[in-house]
Predict the structure of procollagen-proline 3-dioxygenase.
Amino acid sequence: YDDSWSTMYLIRFLLVLVLVLVPLGSSDPVLEPYDLLFDVAVEAYSRADWLSVVLHMEKALRNKALIRTVKADCRLRCSNQSSFSQPVAGVGAVGVPIPGSGSVQDLGFFQKVLHRADCVKSCENHKLGEPSFHRGTEEVDLEFKKRTPYNYLQVAYFKINKLDKAVAAANTFYQANPDHMEMKQNLDYYRMMAGVQEEDFKDLEAREHMADFLLGKSYYSDASFGLAARHFEEALVEYFNADKECRALCEGAYDYDGYNYMEYHADLFQSITDHYLQVLNCKQRCSVELASSAGKDTPFEDFLPSHFNYLQFSYYNSEKYEQAIQCAKTFLLFHPEEQVMTQNLNYYSVVLGEDKAATIAPRQEVKQYIQQSLLEKELLYFGYEAFGITFVDPDTWTPEDVMPKKLREKQKADRETAARITEEIGNLMKEIETLVEEKKKDSTDVVKMVKPLEGGAVLYNDIVVTMTSRQLNGSQRVLLDGVINDDQCRELQRLSNAAAGKGDGYRGGVSPHSPSETFQGVTVLKAVKLGQEGAVPLQSSRLFFDVSEKVRKVLESYFLLDTSLYFSYSHLVCRSAIDEKQDQCSDLSHPVHVDNCLLVSELNECIKEPPAYTHRDYSAILYLNDDFEGGELIFTELDARTVTAEVRPRCGRVLGFGSGKENPHGVKAVTQGQRCAVALWFTLDPLHQEKVGSYICSSNHPSIHPFIHPFIHPHALYDSAPPTGCYRLLPWCCVLVMDHLSLYMFCSVGEDPG
C-alpha cells in the first residue's frame, strides 16, 4: 500500500480498537469490519503466519454472514412492528385535505416511513455498531462472492495439519470455481491422503434450500419417493425463509446505477419511485438468486414450481393422493394450462374420489407468494412504461396479460427482428467457416514441430554466446551477451519508469507475484501509442520495438528454425523491492512455472491446455541492468525445487529458451533495488502473432457491433483507442454493422488486416 492507504487502514484499525474497548451504549463489543479482517488475513498469508490466517479469515466470514443475518432480521422485525396497512394514530378514516399539502393520511404514511427507518437503524446500530464500520469495499465483496477466503483457508489449514478443515475449505472454493485447475488437483491429492474421509468434502457455503432440493432430486432419481418428498418439503420451507431474507436485504441503499449522485436532482416522489422500483426489481431477482447453485452457469429453470412437480409424483408413488392433489393444484397456480399436470390431477381425483378431491385447496402460502409477485410485476411494468425504468421478468410462469399490450407488441417485433438477423448471420457464418477451414489447413501446413536444434549464427558481430544448453544443464537454452549497449539499456529502463503502469499486463495487480515487490510493465503497442501521443520519446518506443525484433531474429537463427518466429507477447517489466517487507521475505519474485503449460510440480507433470498459453514456442529475456540484489533466474526440474541452472542479469544479456516443459523456470526475490528486463514470447503459429490490426470506420455512425467468430481469433479488438466511429480489426476477425434498414459484415480475411 502507498502511504495514504496505510494511513487510512491504521486510522480505521485504531478506531475499531477504541470501539471494542469502549462500547457505545451496549454491553457487546462493536463488530470488527470483515474487509479489514480479510486484509489482515491476506497479509498474514504473505508472512506464512498460518494461525493468524485462520483466525482472521474465519472471523471475517462469520462477521460478514452475521451482518447479512442481522440486517435481514432487523428489517423483517421492523416491518412487522410498523406495517403500512395499520391505521395511523390520531387520523380518522377519511383523510382531511390540507391546503397545498394533500390529506392527513399522507402525513400518516410518512410518519410510518420515519418510524420504520428509525426502527431499522436502531436495531442495526445496537447489534452491529455504526454502519460505516461494516460497509465493505466492492473489491473485497467480490472476493467473498468468489469464495476467495476459502482458497486462503485451505492452504492455512493444510499447513497446520487440519486436513478435514482444509478439505472442506478447498471443496467450498471449488464448488464456486469448477474451472480452477489447481484446486481440482488439490482435491484429487486430498482424496489420496490417509485420514481424509468422504464426508470431509463439504460445501460450507451451501444454501439449505438448495442442498435439500438437490438431495430430493437424488432420491427422486433413485425412486426413493418417500425420502424425496421429505427433502422437497424441507426445501420449500427453507426456500420461503430464504426468500423473505433476500427480499428484506433488497431494502438497502439506493444504487445510482451510473448516475452521479451529486447530479441527481429528482423530486420527492420521483426519488421514492426510483428507489422503490429498484427495490422491487431486486425482490423479483430473488427467484433467480435462490435458483442458482454454486458452479452452475445458469439457475434452475422454473425452480419453485418444479418442487411441486417433483412432490406430486413422489406423493403419488407413495400412495398419498391427498398430498399429490394439493401439490398438483399448487403447480397449476403457476402454469394453469399445463396439460400433463391437468391430466395427473384428474387421475388423482378419480382415485381419491372427485368430491373429496374438490375440497383440497392449493397451498395458501404459494397463492400469497404469486399474488405478491404479480402485483410487483405490474408496478414494475408500469414504471417501465411511464418512466423508462427497464424490467426483465425473471419468471416463466407470469401470465401474458400482466405485461402491458404495447410492451408485448414491442417485444414481439424485437423477437422477429432478432430471428431474422440470426438467420442472416447463420448464412454469413457458413461462408466464413468455409474460408476459415481453408485458412486453418494452410496454417497447419506451415506450423512445424519444434526441432531440438541449436548452434546457428547469432547474426551480429557484437553478440557473444556465453553459455549453451550443455553449460546451462538443459536443452533449448542459450545465454547471449552484447545484444544491446549500456546507453540502450538505460534508455529502455527510463522508458519503463516513464510509461509503465503498476501491475500492467497482470490485471493491474501492483504485486502480482510477490507481496515483497512492486511490479510495473509496458507492452510494445502501449509504448508506441504513448510515443505517438508525445507522452514518452518516440525514439525510445522505437528502440523497444527494434531490440525486440533483433532478439527474434537472433533466436530464429541460433535455434536453426526452418519457419519464422512470430511475436506472441512483448513486455518491458521492472520489479522493485519493497524495503520494509524484506526482513522475512522468503518467496520468489516469480514462482517456478512453464510458459506454455500448467506445471503440476507435485506430479512432475505439465498440462498443455488452457488457461496456459499453449501457442508459445520460445521465450527470451533481455536484461537491462544489474545494480540490484537478488533477481537471478533459475531453471529447475519439473518438481520446481531441484535447481539445474542459475543466470545472473546484466545489461545487454539475453537468455533464450524453449517455452515447453523442458524449461521450468522462476525468478529469485529482488531484495534491494529495481530489476528491469524485456520479456519476449514467440510462436511458430502466425495465427497467434502479436500485431496491430486495421480500422473499420463509419461516416454516418451506424451501430457497429464487434462480432468474434469462435474459429477465428480470441481477440477481435485492441484496447488502444481508434479514431471516433472506428474499430480496430485483427486478421481473420469480423464486425457486424447494422443501420435502420440493412445488415453488413466486414471481415479481414488474410494475415495482413484489410
